[in-house]
């Protein structure tokens, strides 16, 4: 896999115009530190690329409103191993 890593939604949005054609999967935390949630970030990016898949990470020890609306194949609970992450990514591309 080729990875484009950012540490914030704002940086992801800044890099998106130059990187969007290379992105098939967004892996994002469901809860982000800025004013934009992971689902909001995905929605913004999907406006430009509707075919992009999304995999949300989440803390299984904390309650997160909105998780119940997502499909199980779109979720991976933290902490996860590299094998679990790869399996989750594989589920995004049947």
Task: List the SSEs and their pairings.
Blueprint: H1 9-19, E1 25-29, H2 38-48, E2 53-59, E3 75-78, H3 82-92
Parallel strand pairs: 1-2, 2-3
Short description:
The chain is of the alpha/beta class and 94 residues long.
Description:
- The protein is an alpha/beta fold and 94 residues long.
- It contains three helices and three strands, in the order αβαββα.
- It has a three-stranded parallel β-sheet, sandwiched between helices.
- The protein is globular, with a radius of gyration of 13 Å.
Helix content: 25-40%
Q: What would the average pLDDT be, to the nearest integer? A: 92
Strand arrangement across the biggest beta sheet: 1-2-3
* Low confidence ranges: none
Order of helices and strands: HEHEEH
Radius of gyration, in Å, reads 13 Å
Main β sheet profile = 3 strands, parallel
Indicate the structural class. alpha/beta
Mass-distribution shape: globular
Strand content: 15-25%
Spatial separation of the terminal alpha carbons: 16 Å
What oligomeric state do the depicted chains represent?
single chain
Number of helices: 3
The overall strand count is 3
Which key phrases capture this entry?
94 residues, alpha/beta, 3-stranded parallel β-sheet
